[in-house]
Design goal:
With about 280 residues, the protein is of the alpha/beta class. About 40% of the residues lie in helices and about 15% in strands. It has one domain (about 5-275): TIM Barrel. The protein has helices at about 20-30, 40-55, 90-95, 120-140, 155-165, 185-190, 210-215, 245-255, 260-275, and strands spanning about 5-10, 30-35, 60, 100-110, 145-150, 175, 195-200, 220.
Length: about 280
């Protein structure tokens, strides 16, 4: 089978501390390479360290997740061993981002999903931190890996993402991680030059079928977002990069394409925009 690239995974998180080497070996056997994505300085640093340990298989992205700015922040034990909430440090992130193993800035963006009371100050802060990372991506000429999660059944965070980028224009590739937008906002995002990542969720719901057939294949990237949202037949288990094969199979089925075409196109696009060498 052709190789695949998991463009967004978190196997550097503590949930893999007991068997990380075995997880990587399973990915290697499945022909899967990966980008480990940071969510704040600590996980960005561990992503870089893992990428250096496995230079032929792993690259890193560094960023500050918008949920870490939320008043409703909670300690995710999958992500962090200790309940220590970081503050955004632009200079620390800049130093990390200059490492040659770092191929993207993110995940960063806007997350309105769990904002309840006192929304406006939190949204304002998210936009400010997002803008800082947009500028960093442009300065370092590295793609922007965005986490954008709107309020349920709306496109509000996507609309605001477009506005923030209009105020802070970039020439680097713009990637919507774990995309959940409507057809209306998808059209706007396509016109603005975005790429879109999809993961295991497409294997157990038909909610994405229309979007997956509307977006040109050369704008689609594959991800796991491991340890979260494992595809069928692994649903409910801890996700891992090797499982991305199931997502590629489902995308081929939905689009009426061969698995080989899906693998070659999505991987080729990823290698191009992240400037990777085989």
């Amino acid at each position: 089978m052709p190789n695949l690239l998991d463009v967004h995974t978190h196997i550097h998180f503590p949930w893999y501390d007991q068997d990380r080497e075995e997880v990587i070996k399973r990915a290697q056997t499945a022909g899967v390479k990966m980008i480990c994505v940071g969510t704040q300085a600590a996980t960005s640093q561990s992503a870089i360290e893992l990428a250096k340990k496995y230079p032929k298989d792993i690259w890193a992205a560094v960023g500050f997740h918008p949920s870490h700015l939320s008043e409703s922040w909670h300690h995710d034990r999958k992500e962090q061993k200790e309940p220590a909430r970081e503050k955004f440090d632009a200079e620390k992130l800049r130093r990390l981002a200059q490492d040659p193993k770092v191929v993207a800035i993110g995940e960063c963006g806007l997350d309105y999903y769990r904002l309840a009371e006192n929304r406006e100050p939190q949204i304002k802060k998210q936009k400010e931190v997002f803008a800082e990372q947009i500028k960093l991506a442009q300065t370092l000429n590295k793609p922007l890996m965005m986490h954008t999660r709107p309020t349920a059944e709306t496109d509000d965070a996507y609309e605001d993402t477009l506005e923030v980028l209009k105020e802070n224009p970039v020439s680097v590739p713009k990637i919507n991680h774990f995309y959940v937008g409507s057809l209306t906002i998808t059209k706007k995002m396509l016109e603005a030059g975005f790429y879109f990542t999809f993961g295991g969720v497409i294997t157990f719901t038909d909610a994405y079928d229309t979007i997956l057939n509307y977006i040109p294949l050369d704008r689609i990237l594959l991800e796991t977002d491991a340890p979260y949202v494992a595809p069928e037949p692994y649903r409910g288990k801890r996700n891992e990069p090797a499982y991305i094969v199931e997502t590629a199979k489902k995308l081929a089925e939905l689009r009426g394409d061969s698995y080989e075409k899906i693998a070659e196109t999505t991987t080729g696009t990823a290698y191009k925009i992240f400037k990777l060498s085989a």
